[in-house]
C-alpha cells in the first residue's frame, strides 16, 4: 500500500506524520517477512505504548511460537486521531496478507477495523483479536470526546468482513469504560467469538490463546 494508491490520505495526513517524526519519533520500519511468515501486529490504545501492560509479555510469547511480531508506537497516543493512526498502521503493515493477524487493546481495536476498511478488493488479512474494544464513542465521567474522530460514521461491517474472516472479542464483565454490549456488537456484526472475563476491568489478560486459535 502506498500513498499513491490511497490519494485521499495525501492532504494533511502526510504532513501530520512528518511533523510527528520531526519531533524525534521514529518512522515506521515494516517487517515484511516472507510469504509463509505469520505476522502479528499489537496495537495499543489511547495513552498506550509498546511497553505497557501485557504487550511485552504477549510479544515475547508469540515470538517463541515462531511469529514475527510488530508493536508500533502509534502517533501521539495522548491525542490520537483517525487521520494520524490509520495511514501509519497502513505504512507499517505495508503488504497485508492472510498470514497477518492483529491484536488491539481498547482504541487499538477500532483502529484495526478502520484500517481493514481501507484494504483493496483483493487484500485479506488472517484475523483480529479485539481486547476491550468499542464500536462507538465512549460515555463516562471525565471523558470529553477525545476519540471522536474515530467514530464520525459507523463501521462498514460488511466491508470489514470481506477482508477478514476471523474475529475474537475479549471483554470484562466490569470494565468501567467499555460496557459489555460492545462485545455483543462485535459478535452480531462480525461473527466474532465473544469471550467474557470476570472482574478484569479494562486491563484484560493477554490474548495469546486467541491469537493461536485464529492463526491455526
How many domains would you count in the coordinates?
Answer: 1
Q: What is the terminal-to-terminal distance?
A: 26 Å
Give the CATH H-level superfamily. Answer: Alpha/Beta hydrolase fold, catalytic domain
Number of strands: 6
Q: H/E series, N to C?
A: HEHEHEHEHEHEH
Q: Estimate what percentage of residues fall within beta strands.
A: 5-15%
Features:
216 residues, alpha/beta, Rossmann fold, 6-stranded parallel sheet, 7 helices, 6 strands, 31% helix, globular, disordered N terminus
Summarize the structure in words:
There is one protein chain. With 216 residues, this protein is an alpha/beta fold. It has one domain (36-215): Alpha/Beta hydrolase fold, catalytic domain (Rossmann fold). It is built from 7 helices and 6 strands, in the order H-E-H-E-H-E-H-E-H-E-H-E-H. It has helices spanning 13-22, 55-64, 82-93, 107-117, 157-163, 181-190, 208-215, and strands at 39-43, 68-70, 100-105, 127-131, 167-172, 193-197. Strands 2-1-3-4-5-6 form a 6-stranded parallel beta sheet, sandwiched between helices. Helix 2 links the parallel strand 1 and strand 2 (68-70). It is globular and about 45 Å long. The two termini are 26 Å apart. 38% of the residues are buried. The model is unreliable at 1-26 (pLDDT under 50).
Amino acid at each position: 500500500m502506498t500513498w499513491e494508491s490511497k490519494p485521499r490520505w495525501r492532504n494533511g495526513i502526510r504532513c501530520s506524520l512528518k511533523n510527528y517524526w520531526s519531533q524525534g519519533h521514529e518512522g515506521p520500519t515494516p517487517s515484511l517477512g516472507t510469504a509463509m511468515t505469520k505476522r502479528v501486529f499489537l496495537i495499543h490504545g489511547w495513552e498506550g505504548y509498546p511497553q505497557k501492560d501485557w504487550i511485552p509479555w504477549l510479544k515475547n510469547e508469540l515470538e517463541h511460537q515462531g511469529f514475527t511480531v510488530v508493536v508500533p508506537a502509534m502517533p501521539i497516543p495522548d491525542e490520537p486521531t483517525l487521520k494520524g493512526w490509520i495511514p501509519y498502521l497502513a505504512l507499517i503493515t505495508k503488504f497485508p496478507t492472510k498470514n497477518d493477524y492483529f491484536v488491539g487493546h481498547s482504541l487499538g481495536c477500532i483502529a484495526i477495523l478502520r484500517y481493514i476498511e481501507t484494504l483493496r478488493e483483493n487484500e485479506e488479512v488472517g484475523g483480529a483479536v479485539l481486547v476491550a474494544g468499542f464500536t462507538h464513542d465512549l460515555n463516562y465521567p471525565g471523558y470529553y470526546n477525545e476519540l471522536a474522530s474515530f467514530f464520525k460514521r459507523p463501521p462498514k461491517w460488511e466491508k470489514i468482513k470481506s477482508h477478514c474472516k476471523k474475529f475474537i472479542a475479549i471483554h470484562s464483565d466490569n470494565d468501567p469504560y467499555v460496557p459489555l454490549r460492545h462485545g455483543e456488537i462485535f459478535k452480531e456484526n462480525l461473527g466474532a467469538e465473544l469471550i467474557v472475563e470476570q472482574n478484569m476491568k479494562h486491563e484484560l489478560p493477554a490474548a495469546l490463546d486467541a491469537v493461536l486459535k485464529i492463526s491455526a
